[in-house]
Design brief:
The structure is a single chain. With about 120 residues, this protein is mainly β. The chain has one domain. It is built from 2 helices and 4 strands. A 4-stranded mixed beta sheet has the order 2-4-1-3. Bound molecules: zinc ion (2 copies).
Length: about 120
């Protein structure tokens, strides 16, 4: 079995959603069938829940964040799902954000006042 990345949780909006008025060009929009396929992890916004719209605008359901592994890994996922978005962070470079900051070591010879 090939393991894959899971996309993050997405919100599907109807293109007429009042919350997206004037901002529509900032969101990816596509036929709802393709959106479901591309983002299996999704929920419909209230605007799209009532009427099944042929097209949806896709919005990231959670704000940008660092990968926060939950320890739950489906068999075909490359790594455990993120606690915040249920994705694996890694479909593209922008989301491959894992908090691995190197420890800052004080420069050698630094004299700490009072130490
Ligand atoms: Zn909406
Ligand atoms: Zn995440």
């Amino acid at each position: 079995m090939t393991r894959r990345h899971y996309p993050p949780m997405m919100t599907f909006h109807s293109p007429e959603c009042p919350a997206l008025a004037g901002l529509l060009d900032q969101f990816e929009s596509m036929p709802v069938d393709r959106a479901r396929e591309k983002y299996p992890n999704h929920h419909f916004d209230l605007c799209a829940a009532v009427d099944i719209t042929p097209y949806v605008a896709v919005e990231l359901a959670v704000p940008e964040h660092l990968y926060d592994p939950s320890g739950t890994r489906p068999d075909d996922a490359v790594r455990s799902l993120c606690r915040k978005c249920f994705g694996t962070h890694g479909e593209d470079e922008g989301r491959e954000v894992i908090n691995v900051r190197p420890q800052q070591e004080p420069p050698s010879g630094l004299v700490i006042p009072g130490a």
